[in-house]
Amino acid sequence: MSAVVKGPPPLICGPPRGDESGPLAVQSLSVAKLGFLRVKGSNAIGSTFLRPIQAMEDSSVSLRNDCAAISGRNLRQMSTMENPTNIVWHKSPVEKLDRQHLLQQKGCAIWITGLSGSGKSTVACALSQGLHMRGKLTYILDGDNVRHGLNRDLSFKAEDRAENIRRIAEVAKLFADAGIICIASLISPYRKDRDVCRALFPEGDFIEVFMDVPLHVCENRDPKGLYKLARAGKIKGFTGVDDPYEPPLNCEIVLQQKGRDCAPPGEMAETVISYLEEKGYLQA
Ligand SMILES: Nc1ncnc2c1ncn2[C@@H]1O[C@H](COP(=O)(O)OS(=O)(=O)O)[C@@H](OP(=O)(O)O)[C@H]1O
Ligand SMILES: Nc1ncnc2c1ncn2[C@@H]1O[C@H](COP(=O)(O)OP(=O)(O)O)[C@@H](O)[C@H]1O
């Protein structure tokens, strides 16, 4: 028989009921009444945790029952669905700009594409480390890793690769909206799929980085032995062997093999960091 463990009373947020002997009652805090909220002892940058509620400055936003809701024109703008039915975007009073201000950086997606073995994961890690050391918040979405969880149901058929890429782009978009510099590292071999991802982001916030390393170099590295298996016909549809890789035509950054040698990963990461600095992503 399982025992019932009685913990502390739940914190209930709602209008006072006149009966305070039960669970601890807390009067609802109207968003409109909040104004500036100073959080003592918080590690927020500066002492102002929230800026004045921005939603109130936007004429398309109305406050109903203390909740910000958007309507009309903006609804169409913010939904990514072609025919949104009975779905209304719920706006939060803390917005991307507020989060960026807190983090002193701009959220974006750095999309690293290239053949298997071209050094995507290595550069992603060097970049994450370099930015972390500068006090910038990053998160890596590595194709291999995401395929262990969220995308474990997907194969390497063209339509599954497209879905893999689409889902990762949507997750990267959430991270970017959180104000985080999201580093996605996946083969993403088809131009069309990468262009669909780019279209999800505001202008400039999708930064495509091409690992321009020749197939023979990647194949010589073959750290997982997958090229060998693909050449032996034991893996079908392997990128670069019997499935195409379409190099980007207009990407933001190309990381190239220099002569016979590849630049060290740290140097490649610095190239990306310089780009972010120049474009203002390392400040709010
Ligand atoms: N058929 C086939 N083609 C290409 N790659 C294959 C394949 N099967 C397994 N792998 C391994 O899966 C990793 C690629 O996953 P991705 O999610 O980046 O691929 S994709 O963007 O959906 O094309 C890739 O990892 P990386 O080597 O890090 O690129 C491979 O290790
Ligand atoms: N800039 C580089 N120069 C030399 N070797 C590298 C470089 N970057 C990565 N490598 C090596 O290449 C192999 C594949 O790198 P990895 O980052 O796993 O590639 P990918 O994620 O594109 O499959 C690894 O053994 C790694 O140590």
Automatic annotation (TrEMBL):
<dbReference type="GO" id="GO:0016301">
    <property type="term" value="F:kinase activity"/>
</dbReference>
<dbReference type="InterPro" id="IPR027417">
    <property type="entry name" value="P-loop_NTPase"/>
</dbReference>
<comment type="pathway">
    <text>Sulfur metabolism; hydrogen sulfide biosynthesis; sulfite from sulfate: step 2/3.</text>
</comment>
<protein>
    <recommendedName>
        <fullName>Adenylyl-sulfate kinase</fullName>
        <ecNumber>2.7.1.25</ecNumber>
    </recommendedName>
</protein>
<keyword id="KW-0067">ATP-binding</keyword>
<keyword id="KW-0418">Kinase</keyword>
<comment type="similarity">
    <text>Belongs to the APS kinase family.</text>
</comment>
<feature type="domain" description="APS kinase">
    <location>
        <begin position="106"/>
        <end position="255"/>
    </location>
</feature>
<keyword id="KW-0808">Transferase</keyword>
<dbReference type="Pfam" id="PF01583">
    <property type="entry name" value="APS_kinase"/>
</dbReference>
<comment type="function">
    <text>Catalyzes the synthesis of activated sulfate.</text>
</comment>
<dbReference type="InterPro" id="IPR002891">
    <property type="entry name" value="APS"/>
</dbReference>
<keyword id="KW-0547">Nucleotide-binding</keyword>
<dbReference type="InterPro" id="IPR059117">
    <property type="entry name" value="APS_kinase_dom"/>
</dbReference>
